[in-house]
Amino acid sequence: MSERRFIVPAVGATPDASRRKLLGGIAALGASAMLPGCAGFGDGPSDGKPFRIDVHHHIAPPAYIAEARSRKLAVPNTPWSAARSIEDMDKAGVAYSVTSLYQPAAAIGDVEFGRRMSRLSNDYAAQLARDRKGRFGTFATIPYADTEGSLREIAYALDTLNVEGFYLMTSYSGKYLGDPGFWPVLEELNRRKAVVYVHPLVAACCSQLSVGTFPAVIEVPHDTTRTVTSLLLSGSFARYRDIKWLFSHAGGTIPMMAGRIDSFYGRRPNLKEFAPDGIEGEFKRLYYDTANATSAPAMAALMKLVPVSQITYGSDYPYFPLDQITNLRQLGLTQEQLQAIGSANAMRLISSLKS
Length: 355
Description:
This protein is of the alpha/beta class. Helix content is about 45%, strand content about 15%. The protein has one domain: Alpha-Beta Barrel (TIM Barrel), CATH 3.20.20.140.
């Protein structure tokens, strides 16, 4: 068998050409992982070149950080730079990362800030992708609670910047993503058949609850569960069938709560109106990343709820390290499962990665 080698973008190559070469290399590697006699994907290619796709990779545009801090927003202090991202990606075998903004992004209830910071951060991310040819894609920020601003930014992000998808917080001004006030934005995302990646915040309702830890430890995963349930019970999953949803951190506590939600709502006479595939069937249609959720209990719960085809590799970089695939290798997954989580599922989810 001829050797399949990962293709590193050539210096001076155009961004589109570089990405085609890079993704072609990933596809070739993925194919080789399932062929007898080839090195398995889970252990990486023999030449040590990067090959994984990270769908949960944060960036911090300096102008965004400066203004957020001037407004005394709770922006994380974790340092970030493009150079450090590339260095850490190479060390961890990550070929391509789809970036998203540091929290709280455009979820602060200020229309002018939301519109300006969405455009600034999206332009920054697009320029980063051009400067670091073939290494970055973009989940674009939109000011979700601002319908007019969101519709404008969706058009700009897709038609001008050619982004991979969109980046939403779990809640905006105390309202979750399935709130009927947000339906015009979901309608446009659905019309565009967009990938929508959702990242949690600490909800305003619950930031003062204290059990001896800081709020992000418990409230962040629960906020993902709240917004998934909001989208389910509002009928948004049923109504906007062409949106491809990706949720952070293995869906928060959804894998543990799915049966309980089903026990309360699964026998409703109007079930087909908001859950055409049943409660758990709706959860199985969603995608989930592995960021900070690669422990054996978390992955066991997720993989009991959804097939491996719905799980994508995510790191939550730079808050958490990029090498969390090491934890997955210790769970007894097959090489084919590791390859699916590592890159193949992301390539199927995000249409631009197929080109």
